[in-house]
Inverse folding.
């Protein structure tokens, strides 16, 4: 079991309200990602669930029972920290076994669980090393190992991959997703990286200044963003926003169109422009086009285009993929 | 890059410092060794003659020597115990967020700035004096006979005084170490179900071992040569009850004017200090690796 319910939860540090009243439902077995810009309160929210911070008001229910006042150890949640937070003077084996030792589990059973976890995480050869003798990715796996041996009802991850280099990050992302497939335990994952959110989540919670902007599956957020913030935050490269005449054409205050939903042509189209920077990725080409009154527009096109700085082009939006927003930024 | 050339240059450049330091150490040391083989008494100047190992034989067979040796070890051990345990406790307390933290920390460190002679005199006259001392008053207030610390428990009293002086040092070093304790580690342990006591045993203490090692090593060096506190309080007495090696050497050479005997004692003290140092490095020095 691993359902978590937040009801009207708020959190203030002194006079500053970091989380205004917030409701959220996390279902059993779900992979939920909290995503949002830095400082929007993702970590705070996760720490409230973990019990490392006290809520200012509101209720937290875990598996249906009120856990608002429970100390962290009694919530049967396990957390993986950004800095890994391994115990530097203990071997990997002792690190992973620490929660079991604290729970007073007998040595044989604990050893069995440690070995099982080490096998899942490819750590068997490193059990006698200290954390200081491991690479970043291995340390991260030890931290995850320490979480899984407890067999918690949910895992909490706070930006676990942000200290890793790009290639390793992609690998660990896969490993964590696979771990979720194997364990089928609820996972709550915090990141500021929308790519991580999109690739890993069953359900994404977009946060902005402590407020939930939208909750939904990755494709729901991509196809039907509830407002301009979500539209701009989800998707890479970012959605283009236009105001004025082109928006008025569609009876909106502003319109948004994703870079991949603009068609490029050299001789005819809706919006003329001049190519600025062209980023050739091989599979794709990202073009920054200066379209005068409409500002700089991003276009994603095939890897084969042969366009360079200063070339004249025309852009045409796919009308079915156009997003319309009202003056307050809500989707029409 | 370290090339053969730069290594030679480096050696050349540090050599003056090395030569100076060696001279600084070796000249007094060799003179002491030389004196220790002479019959050399200040009361009969100009009568120095070669005495072989006589001085050593006298010093080592003197019953005062074993008393002094035991006292030295008790003094060092006792003070280390009190300062490390007390220092850890104080560091834990001072690490808690509290009102007036800055002032409290300065106050805790204050005893370290008081000169040993002064603090020993303050303890002797204001606290431990059997008639006027604060402790005497306190004993009387609860209807007990005042206890004459310095004559009935002289070594214990000196351990107390020296501990009071060194407690701030230990506290300061351990507090600094405590502040570098990783917050997320504590939280991780909290989530892992470790209570306050478990976190102290499994996280704080291991984190502090290196700082504790430093405290023990540095304090041992200074505690082996405690002198002023003994001179101004008990004069090594009653009998030899509070005489340590340093004080015995002093008594030998300057109270009995026997420079030869004193030098022999000094050399014995140096050898013993080295034995203690090797022993310590063996036992806890490995904590300093990496
Ligand atoms: N212990 C604290 N005391 C005061 N303010 C805090 C504390 N922790 C976080 N904050 C504030 O709360 C806001 C959200 O922080 P955080 O949850 O860490 O953001 P995120 O993880 O999304 O980057 C920030 O503005 C931060 O300054
Ligand atoms: Mg954060």
């Amino acid at each position: 079991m691993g359902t978590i319910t937040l009801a009207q939860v708020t959190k203030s540090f002194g006079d500053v309200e970091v989380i205004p009243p917030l409701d959220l439902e996390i279902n059993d077995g779900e992979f939920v990602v909290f995503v949002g810009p830095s400082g929007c309160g993702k970590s705070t929210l996760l720490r409230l669930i973990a019990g490392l911070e006290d809520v200012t008001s509101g209720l937290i229910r875990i598996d249906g029972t009120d856990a608002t006042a429970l100390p962290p150890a009694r919530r049967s949640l396990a957390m993986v920290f950004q800095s890994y937070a391994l115990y530097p003077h203990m071997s990997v084996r002792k690190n992973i076994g620490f929660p079991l030792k604290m729970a007073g589990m007998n040595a044989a059973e604990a050893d069995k669980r440690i070995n099982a976890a080490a096998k899942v995480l490819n750590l068997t050869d490193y059990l006698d090393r200290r954390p200081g003798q491991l690479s970043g990715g291995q340390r991260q796996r030890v931290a995850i190992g320490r979480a899984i041996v407890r067999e918690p009802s949910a895992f909490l991850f706070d930006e676990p991959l942000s200290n890793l280099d790009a290639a390793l990050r992609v690998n660990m992302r896969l490993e964590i997703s696979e771990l979720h497939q194997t364990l089928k335990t609820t996972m709550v994952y915090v990141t500021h990286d929308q790519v991580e959110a999109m690739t890993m989540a069953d359900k994404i919670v977009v946060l902005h200044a402590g407020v939930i902007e939208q909750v939904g599956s990755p494709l729901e957020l991509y196809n039907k963003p509830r407002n301009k913030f979500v539209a701009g935050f989800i998707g890479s490269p970012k959605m283009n926003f236009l105001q004025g005449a082109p928006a008025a054409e569609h009876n909106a205050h502003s319109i948004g169109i994703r870079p991949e939903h603009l068609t490029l042509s050299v001789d005819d189209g809706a919006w003329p422009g001049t190519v600025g920077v062209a980023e050739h990725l091989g599979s794709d080409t990202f073009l920054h086009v200066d379209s005068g009154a409409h500002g700089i527009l991003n276009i994603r096109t095939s890897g084969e285009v042969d366009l360079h700085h200063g070339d004249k082009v025309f852009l045409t939006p796919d009308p079915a993929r156009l997003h319309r927003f009202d003056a307050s930024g809500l989707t029409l | 890059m370290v090339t053969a050339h730069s290594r030679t240059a480096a050696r050349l450049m540090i050599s003056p410092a090395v030569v100076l330091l060696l001279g600084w150490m070796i000249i007094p040391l060799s003179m002491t060794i030389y004196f220790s083989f002479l019959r050399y008494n200040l009361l009969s100047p100009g009568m120095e003659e070669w005495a072989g190992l006589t001085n050593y034989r006298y010093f080592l067979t003197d019953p005062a020597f074993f008393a002094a040796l035991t006292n030295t070890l008790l003094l060092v051990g006792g003070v280390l115990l009190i300062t490390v345990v007390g220092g850890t406790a104080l560091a834990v307390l001072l690490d808690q967020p509290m009102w007036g933290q800055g002032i409290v920390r300065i106050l805790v460190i204050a005893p370290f700035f008081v000169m040993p002679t002064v603090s020993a005199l303050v303890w002797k006259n204001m606290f431990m004096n059997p008639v006027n001392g604060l402790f005497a008053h306190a004993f009387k207030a609860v209807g007990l006979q005042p206890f004459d610390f310095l004559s009935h428990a002289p070594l214990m009293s000196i351990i107390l005084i020296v501990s009071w002086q060194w407690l701030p040092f230990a506290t300061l070093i351990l507090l600094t170490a405590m502040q570098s304790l990783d917050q997320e580690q504590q939280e991780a342990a909290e989530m892992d179900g470790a209570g306050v006591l478990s976190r102290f045993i499994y996280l704080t203490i291991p984190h502090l071992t290196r700082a504790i090692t430093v405290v023990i090593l540095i304090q041992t060096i200074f505690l082996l040569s405690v002198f002023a506190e003994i001179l101004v309080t008990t004069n090594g007495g009653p009998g030899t009850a509070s005489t340590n090696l340093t004080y015995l050497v002093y008594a030998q050479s300057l109270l009995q004017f026997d420079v030869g005997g004193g030098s022999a004692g000094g050399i014995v003290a140096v050898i013993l200090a080295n034995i203690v140092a090797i022993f310590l490095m063996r036992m806890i020095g490995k904590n300093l690796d990496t």
Remarks:
- Residues A 13, 18, 36, 38-44 surround adenosine-5'-diphosphate (ligand 1) (CB under 6 Å).
- Strands of chain B lie at 38-39, 49-50.
- The interface with chain A takes residues 182, 184-185, 187-194, 198, 202-203, 206-207, 209, 290 of chain B (CB under 8 Å).
- The first helix of chain B runs from residue 4 to 36.
